[in-house]
UniProtKB/TrEMBL annotation:
PROSITE patterns hit by this protein: HMA_2 (PS50846)
PANTHER family assigned to the protein according to its UniProt record, in alphabetical order: P-TYPE CATION-TRANSPORTING ATPASE
Source species taxonomy: Bacteria, Bacillati, Bacillota, Clostridia, Halanaerobiales
Ranges where the HMA domain occurs: 4-70
Protein name: Copper chaperone CopZ
Naturally occurring in which organism (per UniProt): Halanaerobium salsuginis
Keyword S-adenosyl-L-methionine part of the UniProt annotation: no
Sample GO molecular function, one term: metal ion binding
Amino acid sequence: MADKREILNVGGMSCEMCAKSVARALKTLDGVHHVKVELDDDLVEVDYDESKVELAALKKAVEEAGYDIV
Ligand SMILES: [Cu+2]
């Protein structure tokens, strides 16, 4: 089954470490296959399997890592 691609607008990422933290938080979720952070644009691209993980869980992981879903 094809992955779903979601672009999250994430606030609070100010440097490469932040980008890594967000990417790591998302990648630990089962069903997340690809994460790409566009630091300059505050965007995080996530490819995931909808049957394994919900969008709400992606957002929660970002928030629990200490960043905001805008
Ligand atoms: Cu940082």
